[in-house]
């Protein structure tokens, strides 16, 4: 089959404004959109820029907006697209070139929630044990590959007036440590999350959950953070 891709192009070093370029590639119905982009780059236009690495939904680097919905190009089969496919960079982030965006601010916010285990008690002789039941509480959150699709799809992050909201990806990681029985910084974490640009910035719009390629129940986890904040402050 022939796949037609209408791709966002912009090189800030030479283009005055963005434009769209259409490419046609021959593809097998079971190819992914990433395969088509690679074919364009390898056979037609080496100037087309985008990120990818694993090709299998693991590295999170090929997040882009496909027909208006954020997702991973390596997870989209061409057989599911009947007409021209519109491919754009993730919204919210600044375009570096074509489909590549600057994830620096995204990672700064991610770092702001202290995405690591914090312990205060003396280390045991061996590892800090955890039961499978307790690990199960945050197992889904561990699947996050930091693709940024949730934050890019969030209307709160898209609104310039509320753009300081830390965003769903950072909150998923905050959830992961807040509900980890080995972590000993609950109060510190709650102080980081208990404000209008933290967990309370979420207006439960579900867009993050709809697009997450790892099927993480993002909105539910943010709601559980809010409940944990409330319970901790009212106990
Ligand atoms: Fe990507 Fe899902 Fe992680 Fe958001 S929560 S960064 S959509 S994997
Ligand atoms: Fe790694 Fe798509 S290329 S997630």
List keywords for this structure.
235 residues; alpha+beta; five-stranded mixed β-sheet; two-stranded antiparallel sheet; 10 helices; 14% strand; binds iron/sulfur cluster; binds FE2/S2 (inorganic) cluster
Q: Care to describe what's here?
A:
- This protein has ten helices and seven strands.
- Helices cover 34% and strands 14% of the residues.
- It has a five-stranded mixed beta sheet. Strands 6-7 form a two-stranded antiparallel sheet.
- With 235 residues, it is α+β, with helices and mostly antiparallel strands.
- FE2/S2 (inorganic) cluster (FES) binds next to loops.
Write a concise synopsis of the structure shown.
Helix content is 34%, strand content 14%. It is built from 10 helices and 7 strands.
Topology summary:
Elements: E1 2-9, E2 19-26, H1 33-44, E3 63-66, E4 69-72, E5 85-88, E6 95-97, E7 100-101, H2 104-112, H3 132-136, H4 139-142, H5 149-153, H6 155-158, H7 168-178, H8 186-193, H9 207-211, H10 218-233
Parallel strand pairs: 1-5
Antiparallel strand pairs: 1-2, 3-4, 3-5, 6-7
Helix pairs in contact: 2-7, 7-10
The structure holds iron/sulfur cluster and FE2/S2 (inorganic) cluster (FES).
Residues 144-150, 168-169, 172, 211-214, 216, 218 line the site of iron/sulfur cluster.
């Amino acid at each position: 089959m022939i796949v037609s891709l209408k791709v966002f192009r912009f090189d800030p070093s030479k283009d005055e404004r963005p434009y769209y370029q259409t490419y046609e590639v021959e593809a097998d119905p079971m190819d992914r959109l990433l395969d088509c982009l690679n074919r364009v780059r390898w056979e037609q236009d080496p100037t087309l820029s985008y990120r990818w690495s694993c090709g299998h939904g693991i590295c999170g680097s090929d997040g882009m907006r496909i027909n208006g919905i954020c997702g991973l190009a390596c997870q989209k089969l061409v057989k599911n697209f009947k007409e021209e496919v519109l491919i754009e960079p993730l919204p919210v982030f600044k375009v570096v070139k074509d489909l590549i965006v600057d994830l620096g601010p995204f990672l700064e916010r991610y770092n702001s929630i202290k995405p690591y285990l914090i312990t205060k008690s003396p280390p045991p002789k061996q590892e800090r044990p955890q039961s499978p039941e307790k690990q199960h509480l945050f197992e889904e959150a561990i699947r996050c590959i930091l693709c940024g699709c949730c934050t890019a799809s969030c209307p709160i992050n898209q609104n310039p007036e509320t753009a300081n909201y830390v965003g769903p990806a950072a909150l998923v990681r905050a959830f992961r440590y807040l509900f980890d029985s080995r972590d000993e910084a609950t109060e510190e974490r709650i102080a980081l999350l208990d404000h209008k640009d933290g967990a309370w910035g979420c207006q439960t719009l579900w867009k993050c959950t709809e697009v997450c390629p790892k099927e993480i129940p993002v909105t539910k986890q943010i709601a559980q953070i809010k409940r944990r904040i409330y319970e901790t402050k009212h106990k």
